Amino acid sequence: MKFLHFATSFVALSSSVSSSILPPSSKALAVREPEAKSETYDQFFDASPLERRRGGGGRSSGSSGSSSGGSRGSSSSSSSTRGDSNAGGRTSTGSGPTPRFGGGRFYGGGAVVPYSAGSRSPAGIVPFILLGGALLVFPGLWLYGAYIYDYPRQITYFNESANANETNAVQCWCSRFLVCSCDENDEDDYVQDLIGDGNWRNLDKSLITVTDVNGTRTVLINGTLPNGTTASGGEDGEGAAANFKPVEYTVYALMAAVLTSAVWFI
């Protein structure tokens, strides 16, 4: 009787844990389409006008030590993914939104090849995680929290309202359990495409904003991509490792531990 009562409780517990922890899967993206604004993210932003820097835009000085966006992409390994995978990587023809910045070379966050949110970026940036009220600095539907990629260098652009060049810190945010495109990018054509023509009405507010973060004026970029997004130029195939989700492992490991404990009660 004790074991029956325990087993019943365990089934209820495992069902509750699974429904509360596991994020919903995105459906497969059947048609390749340009990366576009997301209506879901339109409510994220409340920013001041931005303009490209006079003379073509770009990063502040000190960028000689960084690698170009192209070299970052070439070092990324191929990855086979399902439509609901957040692994990113490359497939033969690519899937999901295509890059539309810097002449179609870069995703919105600056990366050449997307990857799983929370991983180290191709340029080596290690993110930190924000949960709960800390997300209010960048309002939006960060349902499971966000990974924050704090770029080492600042960005310079022309602010029309101040009639002067401004240099600000940069952060790129990616929603947990989704695909990420955040990577520091000092390519002038990427920065110019990102900031646009300086007209606030034409700024892509689903992608970029400027706000104060801990007293520091900061450019915030939304680098989130839908699950199933991959860059072209890789190889297709089936691989369970690309679709493996750590959160699922945590749940199943917990269930296995409880089952093992139950044996000793028999």
From TrEMBL:
<keyword id="KW-1133">Transmembrane helix</keyword>
<feature type="region of interest" description="Disordered">
    <location>
        <begin position="18"/>
        <end position="101"/>
    </location>
</feature>
<feature type="transmembrane region" description="Helical">
    <location>
        <begin position="125"/>
        <end position="149"/>
    </location>
</feature>
<dbReference type="InterPro" id="IPR056634">
    <property type="entry name" value="DUF7732"/>
</dbReference>
<feature type="compositionally biased region" description="Low complexity">
    <location>
        <begin position="88"/>
        <end position="100"/>
    </location>
</feature>
<keyword id="KW-0812">Transmembrane</keyword>
<keyword id="KW-0472">Membrane</keyword>
<protein>
    <recommendedName>
        <fullName>DUF7732 domain-containing protein</fullName>
    </recommendedName>
</protein>
<feature type="domain" description="DUF7732">
    <location>
        <begin position="106"/>
        <end position="229"/>
    </location>
</feature>
<feature type="signal peptide">
    <location>
        <begin position="1"/>
        <end position="19"/>
    </location>
</feature>
<dbReference type="Pfam" id="PF24866">
    <property type="entry name" value="DUF7732"/>
</dbReference>
<feature type="compositionally biased region" description="Basic and acidic residues">
    <location>
        <begin position="30"/>
        <end position="40"/>
    </location>
</feature>
<keyword id="KW-0732">Signal</keyword>
